[in-house]
């Protein structure tokens, strides 16, 4: 099913591959071997190339989804919205896919500041003690089929899934009800990297600037040994939501001593060892999953006050459940036909800010009953002062609160105009903006420049699930359609 003006189920024809020979469907060689050690899956010593056809910035789920789509080409699924029941491709076909070690020969490079595939995800799980994902089993980076994760798990005799017993089983929502464990997802992604032969396409580098140059883009990369300029015909920005921090208003008035002691939750993802030093009475700010996981991790070390700027929101997924039920087609149609202003409102309404899952809410409720955590709704920090021995916080209620440590689990700042990587593009090749987000082409392209955005940066086009696994799959499909010659954007 397709919705004007855009389809997420594109016709797959060999004409696409003929227009872009380097994107032809992958050749098949030997069966898949066991995945190598996670940490070895990047280019350790080989220098970065001077020129590539496609440079993908980010080696997380969005980058891996883009890589899978490029490698599979016309073999990939043509509809990224998962079925509610049954399957699209037969399980035996999915099993055959999982036995094919791809030989693609693409002139393709990934760069990631962590230098490993799914590195920040792995750190996040370690820091927060996350056992299972919030997204269900049909949400993953493989472009072949929605069922690939579950079929792979069955082939490996893995059963580390969480079965949700409390979700409604009615006309509005009839599943899926199964969540993969974090280890299952990471092992699956590790296998995908091996399956698609992407190990030798990842370099450890931080992308600093993008500059249009000739028919492509020159990307300035910071590496361990200095700065390197790489010219790419096409650049895909596939960073996750944790690359830029959102801070509460009081942060802007902190003195130097406070700036050195305050933690953003994502600092703990990058350096999980910092969690070991957090002891005593803590204050955590935020109403989403991250703040609740932090409470669970730290409650045994001292009392925690969890501050929410509104009421506690509990829901299974981070967007409204009907976006994943039988009404998902209606919601997609409404979104695709809406104006940019209307899309922004739809996104805000569907996501509705931070929330926690029912399972995690049960954990939090238990901690409250034990007196280890106090949850304060409709309460914010007005001012904060660090005085060497700890924090003094003045709250919006007028109350003064003392703490040994302070963590802000306050999410992402999305503003292209002040983004160090993209601000130069906006200055030289300005796009219309809405709430900090750029208005792209429907293939997620930056105007006529060969630069494409994924994730929350493309939310005005991908919808409220832009940052999730389904958004990664949808974004990869749309960008692939441009790279493979769709709508006049041909790759020579």
Descriptive overview:
The chain is an alpha/beta fold and 492 residues long. It folds into two domains: 14-242 and 414-488, FAD/NAD(P)-binding domain; 245-318 and 354-408, FAD/NAD(P)-binding domain, CATH 3.50.50. The chain is 28% helix and 19% strand. The protein is built from 15 helices and 21 strands. The chain has helices spanning 14-19, 61-72, 91-97, 119-128, 148-155, 182-195, 256-259, 265-270, 289-298, 328-337, 340-351, 358-369, 423-428, 459-462, 469-483, and strands at 27-28, 51-57, 102-103, 108-112, 161-163, 178-180, 202-204, 206-213, 216-223, 226-237, 263-264, 282-285, 304-307, 373-376, 381-386, 391-395, 400-403, 405-408, 433-434, 437-438, 451-453. Strands 2, 4, 7, 8, 9, 10 and 21 form a seven-stranded mixed beta sheet that branches. Helix 9 (289-298) links the parallel strand 12 (282-285) and strand 13 (304-307). Helix 2 (61-72) crosses helix 15 and helix 9 (289-298) packs parallel to helix 12. The model is unreliable at 1-41 and 486-492 (pLDDT under 50).
Quick tags:
492 residues, alpha/beta, FAD/NAD(P)-binding domain, 5-stranded parallel β-sheet, 28% helix, 19% strand, disordered N terminus, disordered C terminus, FAD/NAD-bd_sf, L-ornithine N(5)-monooxygenase
Helix content: 25-40%
Poorly predicted runs of 5 or more residues: 1-41, 486-492
The count of β-strands is 21
How many helix segments?
15
Named CATH architecture of the largest domain: 3-Layer(bba) Sandwich
């Amino acid at each position: 099913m397709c919705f004007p003006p855009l389809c997420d189920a594109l016709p797959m024809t060999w004409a696409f591959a003929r227009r872009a020979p380097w994107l032809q469907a992958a050749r098949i060689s030997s069966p898949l071997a066991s995945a190598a050690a996670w940490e070895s899956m990047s280019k350790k010593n080989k220098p970065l190339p001077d020129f590539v056809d496609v440079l993908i910035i980010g080696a997380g789920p969005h980058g891996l989804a883009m890589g899978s789509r490029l490698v599979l080409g016309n073999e990939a699924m043509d509809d990224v919205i998962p079925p509610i029941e049954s399957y699209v491709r037969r399980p035996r076909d999915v099993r055959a896919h999982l036995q094919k070690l791809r030989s693609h020969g693409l002139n393709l490079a990934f760069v990631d500041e962590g230098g490993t595939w799914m590195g920040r995800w792995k750190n996040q799980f370690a820091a927060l003690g996350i056992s299972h994902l919030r997204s269900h089993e049909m949400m993953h980076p493989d472009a072949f089929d929605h069922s690939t994760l579950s079929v792979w798990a069955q082939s490996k005799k893995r059963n580390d899934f969480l079965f949700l017993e409390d979700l409604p089983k009615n006309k509005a929502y009839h599943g899926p009800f199964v969540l993969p464990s974090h280890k299952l997802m990471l092992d699956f992604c590790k296998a995908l990297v091996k399956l698609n032969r992407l190990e030798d396409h990842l370099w450890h580098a931080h992308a600093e600037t993008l500059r249009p140059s000739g028919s492509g883009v020159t990307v300035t990369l910071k590496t361990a040994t200095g700065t390197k300029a790489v010219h790419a015909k096409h650049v895909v920005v596939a960073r996750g939501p944790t690359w830029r921090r959102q801070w509460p208003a009081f942060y802007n008035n902190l003195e130097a001593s406070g700036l050195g002691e305050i933690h953003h939750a994502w600092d703990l993802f990058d350096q999980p060892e910092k969690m070991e030093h957090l002891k005593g009475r803590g204050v955590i700010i935020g109403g989403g999953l991250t703040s609740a996981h932090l409470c669970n991790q730290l409650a045994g070390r001292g009392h925690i006050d969890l501050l929410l700027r509104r009421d506690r929101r509990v829901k299974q997924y981070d967007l409204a459940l009907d976006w994943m039920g039988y009404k998902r087609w209606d919601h997609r149609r409404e979104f695709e036909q809406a104006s940019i202003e209307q899309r922004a409102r739809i996104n805000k309404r569907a996501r509705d800010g931070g929330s926690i899952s029912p399972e995690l809410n049960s954990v939090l409720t238990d901690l409250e009953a034990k007196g280890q955590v106090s949850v304060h709704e409709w309460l914010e920090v007005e001012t904060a002062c660090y005085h060497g021995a700890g924090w003094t916080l003045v709250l919006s209620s007028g109350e003064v609160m003392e703490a040994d440590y302070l963590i802000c689990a306050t999410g992402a700042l999305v503003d292209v105009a002040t983004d160090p990587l993209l601000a130069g593009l906006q200055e030289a090749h300005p796009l219309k903006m809405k709430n900090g987000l750029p208005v792209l082409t429907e293939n997620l392209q930056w105007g006529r420049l060969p630069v494409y955005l994924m994730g929350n940066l493309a939310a005005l086009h991908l919808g409220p699930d832009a940052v999730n696994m389904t958004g990664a799959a949808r974004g990869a499909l749309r960008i692939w359609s441009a790279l493979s010659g769709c709508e006049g954007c041909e790759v020579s």
